Amino acid sequence: MNGEKPGIDRRHLLKGSLALGLASFLTPRGLSANDSSTATLPFERGRRPLIAFPQKRPLMVMTTRPPQLETPFHIFNEDIFTPNDAFFVRWHLANIPQTIDVNTFRLTIRGRVNQTLSLSLQELQTQFDQVEIAAVCQCAGNSRGFFQPRVPGGQWGNGAMGNANWKGIRLRDLLHRAGIETDAVQVRFDGLDQPVAQATPDFRKSLSLEDALHEEVLVAHSMNGEALPMLNGFPLRLVVPGWYATYWVKMLADIEVLNQADQNFWTTRAYRLPADPCHCMKPGEDLTDTVPIGKMPVRSFITNMEDGRSIPGGAPYTIKGIAFDQGYGIDRVLFSVDGGQQWQSARLGKDFGDFSFRLWEAPFTPEPGKTYSLQSLAINRIGESQRFSARWNPSGYLRNVVETVKIHAT
Amino acid sequence: MIRVWIFLLLLIGATDFAWGLPADGGSREQVSILHLPSDPISFQPGPGSDLANRYCLICHSAEYVYMQPPHSREQWMEIVNKMQTTFGCPISDEDMAPLSDYLVTQNSLQPSPSAPPVQSDEQKKEIAGRSPNHSGDPLKGESLYKRHCLTCHGPGGKGDGPIGQALIPPAANLTLLGKQSDKTVLETLRNGRPGTAMPSWKNDLNALELNHLLSFLRTLTP
To answer: Where is pLDDT greater, at B109 or A144?
Structure first.
């Protein structure tokens, strides 16, 4: 990428850049055995240290290498757009570039195209339409820790998701500039991250040509008005609104148009669901037919009440939350205080687009001494709703059951 | 006791994200640098922990194990098998069962980031009798090397150990360390090398042991 070596003199760099007044610099944070701030997710081995990684505020560290960081859930109550420094992080491979030279970086579009393109960041910003879209990025394994029985994999709570305003270039504009050959069927995306062991398959994902040509699919360079954080894919990442984040390839550097179905491991063997329409099965059953994971089912959350909390009774509250789906848009959110026996309509907040979080709120006056099971149920514009019973599959994907927040009024 | 976690990111010559439109001529210094922390926890000592350290830590930190819900031995065996066959972990067939046995023993633990390893009284005495710039004992360093480093860096330190050549980048050739200062080598030993499989040893080796190791490494340089 460039000539910088790991042994580069950090002090020199720091001094030089501060002199220019241009450095974005994070205070180093210490963590010792005596000084660990932690958060605990409500399942076994759910303790997570809160540590600030580069360009991030302290987040829940699931793993350090490669980094997997979860957004503490209260963040979702603070803003409909998840701040960049609080946005979750998930890498598959630990060989993440330590440096990106923005002058020499090139995005390549190659394969079954009329003309291979190699585009600088400046060319991408000046020669193509710049478009913006609000969209939820949710890890395929979000909420995996709640599966019962538990399943192997990243043990996320509900914070492996975020909503941002993504800005960049339409993928289809790039593909059309290169010229798609008539026999093209898929488009494969590769980032700069690499495996540590030679035999580990490099992380790459593919979309069908049809999906890749959807107008909302972007090669994004910015997020909430700023450059992507390094850990969220600087300088470019694929944004596939409505689809799980596994397709949102980070540090995107290579786009390859294929004339046959991609056979790479991450597409053919990882991120698979049971093929039946429910994408679920009984624990212990054999998984035979599978299909790749794709778009996100409708979900909603209460964001301003934590499970197990006690609140003073007799006073009026406004319960707040978020809802989202794969891009049909949220039609309505229902709210219940009695575990789903009776429902009232929640009031929807401003519409930031079909792929965004949608805020909702509902009034609630608890009676002193009573215990409540608060639930929200989102329904999208084609009538799909959340599930009332949790689906189970062996990889812990697609959770969208109606979640329950139990509270007690004093 | 100080764990130095330097998390800093410098956007040199770039304000918010000025990479888009560098001024005429453009700065040749627009580079973003990412410094990631080293592993905060180690595998807990016990029968088989050497296998977990040798194999699992090549690609990921120990938290990958300690965040898992308790798995049965069969499940761990399945996971270890997947690491070997699917993800290309260079684990030998005979090590798979003992590694799975070890992972089962870790099922109920969730260790916290640990303090650096404690020095024994004997080691403290040894340190007390030396000046701050003492050199370590290359013979003690050699036995540490054989235990911790050989599988990657090879018997002669050329990076040709059974695992070393399977890595991207391959394990470093330690016979070429001559130009690196003691300070640099010790820092690499303590903190690992980001972007490579070289882990941090500060949770496993104390200062004295690191010095022994350094002394041994110096004997590898022609």
So the answer is: A144
Return the H-helix or E-strand segment holding A15: helix A10-20
Mutate to test the interface with B, among A57, A65, A128, A202 (most CBs of B within 10 A): A65
Considering the domain architecture, whether residues A117 and A254 belong to the same structural domain is answered as yes
Residue B134 pLDDT greater than 70, yes or no: no
Q: Establish if A225 belongs to a structural domain.
A: yes
Contacts A4 to B, Cβ<8 Å: 31, 33
Helix (H) or strand (E) holding A58: strand A58-63
In the sheet that A58-63 helps form, which strands lie side by side, from edge to edge?
A: A38-40, A47-52, A58-63, A68-70, A89-90
**Does the CB of A312 have a partner CB in chain B at under 8 Å?**
no
| A130 lies within 8 A of chain B by CB | no
Mean pLDDT across A265-289: 94
Whether residues B34 and A235 touch (CB distance < 8 A) is answered with no
For residue range A155-165, what is the model confidence (pLDDT) as tens digits? Answer: 999 999 999 99
Residue A201 in contact with partner chain B when CB distance is under 8 A: yes
Residues of chain A contacting B76 with CB distance shorter than 8 Å: none
Local structure of residue A246 (DSSP, 8 states): G
Domain that holds residue A165: 106-270
CATH number for the domain harbouring residue A122: 3.90.420.10
Residues B216 and B222: their CA atoms lie apart, in Å, by 12
Give the pLDDT of residue A29: 38
Q: How far apart are CA A318 and CA A300, in angstroms?
A: 16
- Do A121 and A252 fall within a single domain? yes
Q: Does the model's ipTM exceed the 0.90 cut?
A: no
